[in-house]
Specification:
Distance between the termini of chain B: 41 Å
Helix content of chain B: under 10%
Order of helices and strands of chain B: EEEEEEEEEEEE
Oligomer: heterodimer
Largest interface: A-B, 21 and 23 residues
Strand content of chain A: over 45%
Shape of chain A: globular
Number of strands of chain A: 11
Helix content of chain A: under 10%
Number of helices of chain B: 0
Largest sheet of chain A: 7 strands, mixed
Radius of gyration of chain A: 13 Å
Structural class of chain B: mainly beta
Number of strands of chain B: 12
Shape of chain B: globular
Chain lengths: ~110, ~110
């Protein structure tokens, strides 16, 4: 039943490690996103993919690499994790990706880097 | 450039009070969409409403109402007769392509 699902829900790791967060949507949407929510609750877009193609790539360190094997999946791989990467990462999808589409969010992955 | 300002960082009310959450936006586009999302303590982000720039009709959904005024670039959200379950962080967002969020307003409704 879950529309946008992310795994894992919690991720605790040490500095320097590499980790991945997986996202899947079963809504048949064409566009998927990654957002980062910092400790002050500020939500910032990181990436946007439309039908497996990268559309938006905000100023995000190269250590973050999204991968979309098909339009239902958008994974986020993070290399050489830093303390500042600690945040909640939300995956989202929208039907077409136009400005009027509401975003449907996953439940978030809380990443803690120690 | 697009920008959304939610000047109220935190609001605390007592149950049954009415409360209005302010949202002011900036954009040079003539076609844009405005949204409100709710993030309850459990952490998920829930879509509440969407408005396009050509439709200034106010909207009411149960205890929730939204007032869109292009003249003041505002899209305010009012909860009537607030309840404890309304406690959440509320985000206003603007989309002219990708969606940009305001900083959020944390609403606490006390019993």
């Amino acid at each position: 039943d879950t529309a946008v699902s992310q795994t894992p829900k919690y991720l605790v790791t040490q500095m320097g490690n590499d980790k991945s967060i997986k996202c899947e949507q079963n809504l048949g949407h064409d566009t998927m996103y990654w957002y980062k929510q910092d400790s002050k609750k500020f939500l910032k877009i990181m990436f946007s993919y439309n039908n497996k193609e990268l559309i938006i790539n905000e100023t995000v360190p190269n250590r973050f690499s999204p991968k979309s094997p098909d339009k239902a999946h958008l994974n986020l791989h993070i290399n050489s994790l830093e303390l500042g990467d600690s945040a909640v990462y939300f995956c989202a999808s929208s039907q077409v990706g136009t400005r009027g589409d509401p975003l449907h969010f996953g439940n978030g992955t809380r990443l803690t880097v120690t | 450039a697009q920008k959304v300002t939610q000047a109220q960082t935190e609001i605390s009310v007592v149950e049954k009070e009415d409360v209005t959450l302010d949202c002011v936006y900036e954009t040079r586009d003539t076609t844009y969409y405005l949204f409100w999302y709710k993030q309850p303590p459990s952490g998920e982000l829930v879509f509440l409403i969407r408005r396009n720039s050509f439709d200034e009709q106010n909207e009411i959904s149960g205890r929730y109402s939204w007032n869109f005024q292009k003249s003041t670039s505002s899209f305010n959200f009012t909860i009537t007769a607030s309840q404890v379950v309304d406690s959440a962080v509320y985000f206003c967002a603007l989309s002219v392509g990708d969606m940009r969020f305001g900083a959020g307003t944390r609403l606490t409704v006390k019993p």
